[in-house]
Amino acid sequence: MTDPELVAFLSRVAPRLGLRAAGYRRVRGTVRKRLSRRLVALGFDLPAYMRYLETHPDEWQWLDRSCRITISRFGRDAPVFERLMTHVLPERAAAASAAGRAGLRVWSAGCASGEEAYATAIAFRARVAPLYPRLELDVLGTDLEPAVLARARRGGYPPGNLRELPDALRALAFERRSGELFVRPEYREGVAFALADLRGPAPPGPFDVILCRNAAFTYFAEPLQQHVTTALCTALRPGGVLVVGAGEVLPAGHPQLSAGAPCFYTRSALELAPPAP
User: Fold this and answer.
1) Residue 267 host element (H or E)
2) H or E element at residue 104
3) Dist. CA 160–CA 127, nearest whole Å
4) Which of the listed residues 66, 89, 107 is the one where a domain comes to its end?
5) Domain shared by 95 and 163, yes or no
6) Per residue in 176-204, pLDDT tens?
């Protein structure tokens, strides 16, 4: 299967799945490997597989799963993680403390194997908790793949997954066992994982920070992005912050979310009146 053949195939099937083919530009190799194995198993070439899709509706479910990209790393996109650690978490902690709330809630939406959820907890406990020792942290990581959630709950990672995490945090929060690095128990406290699809209902909010990076706003088509943005905004506490991936932007039409630094959007602290009919 050549790359042009894969591009043409994705352009045909992506709209049916609510996806945008252009979002797979950097990860087409992953999709090609999965699809190639499927074609071998079925004994098809791509044209035959397209005909198979037309007569076997259940196959679209397999194709949808094959287009899910679950790549993540600790501290991914260093400038974004640095701002989350040094600005967003301290500011949201200060607001929660001033409001008399007992804790701070973070949702890692599309958490893959849990790297982002744990990294957020590590950053909070290392940099923010000493300033607000009575403030509890709850981090919820959600994904629609049971296998990656199982890896997240295990909490062990190959060293390469931590190469972008600052050395001080790596030394502080991990212990080596059998060639892997495991999150220490004290940095796992308050971190939970659950099965959920970004295309479905959001978990009960409100959340002070929502991280939705390198998922919906890379791979989803615009109508589905609109749906997800509305759900994320609704789940955010007024004044809360939505963080997207490097190079991602929100679709237009969400006045309650205002852009700040690249990748960071703040929900208005005021409830906006609905537009006039």
Assistant:
1) strand 264-267
2) strand 103-109
3) 24
4) 66
5) yes
6) 999 999 999 999 999 999 999 999 999 99
